[in-house]
Amino acid sequence: AGMNGTAISDFACVIFNVSFMNCTWHVGRTATEDTQYFLYWGPLKNENVTECQNYIKDACGRHIGCRFQNVTIKNNIPYFLVNGSRSGQSIHISGYIIVEKLTPPLNVTVNCTEASRRCSIWWQPPRTSHVENMSCFKYEIVIENK
């Protein structure tokens, strides 16, 4: 995308509390103050692509991110498109990162037997917005002797 240095960089999204997502980016290296960016996104490239409803802005009023509510991405790779009004070119973003901050595990159960001096601990995996495969999760357990 030859956008004369106005192309965005470091596009990344963070999902938290299962349904909120913030996506942010850095404005282009040579983007002037009147350069503006518009984010469109959808589940697939040509399907219901909608514009961001809630932009995050920098001091110049340029859009540098978007806040989403009620996000579900499960199992498909969302399509993101940002265009800059200065050169009017669209850039399809392929090198983005989506990070999900997980909710704590639910219903933690501890079962200890005095005789064998063993304990079993189990829990329900977290609710998520975009990771389906439960083998992707890893928890650390800290056991304190009270």
Automatic annotation (TrEMBL):
Type I cytokine receptor cytokine-binding domain residues: 10-94
Pfam families: IL6Ra-bind
SUPFAM superfamilies: Fibronectin type III (SSF49265)
Keyword vocabulary terms for this entry: Glycoprotein, Membrane, Receptor, Signal, Transmembrane, Transmembrane helix
Intracellular or extracellular location(s): Membrane
UniProt keyword Zinc present: no
Membrane topology field: Single-pass type I membrane protein
Annotated Gene Ontology cellular component terms: external side of plasma membrane
Keyword check for Membrane: yes
An MF annotation (GO) of this entry: cytokine receptor activity
Superkingdom: Eukaryota
Protein name, as recorded: CSF2R factor
